[in-house]
Design goal:
10 strands, alpha/beta, Aminopeptidase
Length: 309
């Protein structure tokens, strides 16, 4: 077992305690503004959406953050509900900006056909620090279970709970970045006192289906739409993407509920997690945002055409 140092915090082979977590937290720096880049453009949509503050996070000296969602204006209880989430991992920028772009320029096409609930930035502290975790060194996207150790996850589950049984679709917007391999996975190994085992970052877009309830035709419809915007990640030499078998071009699957992942919180029959690759030389930030929008629209179009309630 290789226990050579691979992260500046902690002792190799020993899980972090309070001191190590405090040392890690002291290293984090605010690099952008949630208020300016998320809250202001979100509140500017109030004429077309109902803006809902479903909670807040008070991280003392690290900031106070409102948790905001967009709810369809003219909500119709006779219609099914679709959830779009972004920024569960705050550093994954196109998830946040893609959700806002969809809400601003594309959601109107679905008015009167389906109720939309859009949560552009689940983890605002992580958004500002361009980090995967919250300030407690917890990954919100492994924390969607009761009781949740992550306040971000608990607040979103509370928002969703009254609508369970009515969701037909959930699209959770993510990115896979080079920093996953260079920074975040080494930090995870250090935090848990485990050896870091290098992996491979795929070049391109892919989706994560629910292995407990797969929807291959739905996933493929989304892939086909996104392929018109950006390239789809190929399988590696072993037929895998990030260690998981490729089930169809650009599609892998996880047990969403078992792993405490955001895409498992609604019980919707149609769910997918998008994974954009923003570090590709073939992709621009605008293209990454557009890929997220294409995925949302394709998912909605498929559900409305095939899965009418």
């Amino acid at each position: 077992m290789n226990l050579q140092p691979f992260h500046p915090v902690g002792t190799p082979g020993q899980p972090w305690g309070k001191a190590e977590k405090a040392q890690w937290l002291a290293m984090q720096r605010r690099q952008r503004s949630h208020a300016e880049e998320v809250v202001e453009p979100l509140r500017a949509l109030a004429g077309d959406w109902d803006v809902v503050e479903y909670g807040s996070l008070d991280y003392a000296d690290d900031g106070h953050y409102p948790l905001l969602a967009l709810r369809s204006r003219g909500w119709d209880d006779s219609l099914p509900v679709a959830l779009v989430t972004g920024g569960v991992h705050g550093y994954e920028t196109s998830g946040v900006q893609g959700a806002l772009l969809f809400a601003r320029g594309h959601a109107a096409a679905y008015a009167g056909r389906i109720n939309l609930l859009v949560v552009p930035c689940v983890s605002p502290w992580g958004y500002e620090r361009i980090h995967r975790w919250n300030p407690d060194a917890i990954d919100p996207n492994r924390s969607f279970r009761q009781p949740s150790p992550a306040r971000e996850s608990a607040a979103l589950m509370e928002l969703v709970e009254p609508l369970r049984g009515r969701f037909v679709l959930h699209v959770d917007l993510h990115e896979t970045t080079d920093s996953d391999e260079s920074e975040f996975r080494p930090a995870l190994a250090a935090r848990d006192g485990k050896p870091f085992e290098p992996g491979h970052i795929p070049d391109g877009f892919y989706l994560v289906d629910d292995s407990a309830r797969p929807q291959p035709e739905f996933q493929q419809a989304v892939i086909e739409a996104v392929a018109k915007v950006t390239h789809i990640a190929p399988a590696d030499a072993d037929g895998r993407i990030i260690g998981s078998p490729v089930l169809a071009p650009g599609v892998i699957a996880y047990p969403l509920v078992e792993l405490g992942l955001c895409a498992g919180i609604t019980g919707a029959p149609y769910v997918t997690t998008t994974e954009v690759y923003p570090d590709s030389p073939q992709a621009t930030p605008a293209q990454c945002n557009a890929a997220q929008v294409a995925a949302i629209c394709a998912a909605l179009d498929h559900v409305l055409a095939v899965a009418r309630p």
